[in-house]
Amino acid sequence: MKFKKSLVFIFVVAAVLVLSSGVMAQTYVVGTNASFPPFEYVEEGEIVGFDIELIKEIAKLQGFEVEVRDISFDSLIPGLASGSLDIVAAGMTITEKREEVVDFSEPYYSANQSVLVHEESDANLTVLFGNHDIGVQTGTTGDTWVRENLIQTDILTGEIRNYDSYVFVIRDLSNQNIDAAVLDKPVAETYSQNNPVQVVAEIITGEEYGIAVGEGNEELLAEINAGLEKVKNNGTMEKLIQKYFE
Ligand code: GLN
Q: I need a surface site. Which of 34, 47, 92, 130 has the fewest CB within 10 A?
């Protein structure tokens, strides 16, 4: 009798576990670099911004949960490859080189690069020529652009300074420890609102941002694209653009 009761108990526990795992939403780890306002930044200890709201909205629509992690930009793609991250939402530009190692969603935002200098500087685009020091965030398209167009051509004879976070790029620029920074224009403009820095030139690179998943993760990519499509069609995208850019 006792034996029977415990069997029933085990059966009930097993049934509850099976049922709850069926209804419990899957949690995906989202990697970002929260020094990229207004796309991702830290406010009162929380990671917030356009991309964060976007991925949370997609998750809600598609029925999954997300846990957001703030790591250095150049660790995001390795994180997808190693499986420590499932998704990257980081204002990441879709490039051919990155396409070789990760898969991108449909594009959701377009941007160019820009040149940022101190607000009291009378520098213009020519700050990129000659003996000047230029700050970039490691692994970004701004970093690559400076290397390919200015360093390899000997146009820039000063240093390219690499940083793990734009927060430190902006700090060094505000302190005039570097002469300029090259970064995505919407972010440079956002920083210029609260820091003694100004955008003096735009570099037309025609970049498009995508949400990334591990190479070959077709199922998750389809979920993200489906959610993105809904966000674009149901007015949420428009609302996010108004909230963060207007
Ligand atoms: N859009 C740029 C890139 O993909 C910068 C992104 C970022 O620094 N978060 O490299």
A: 130
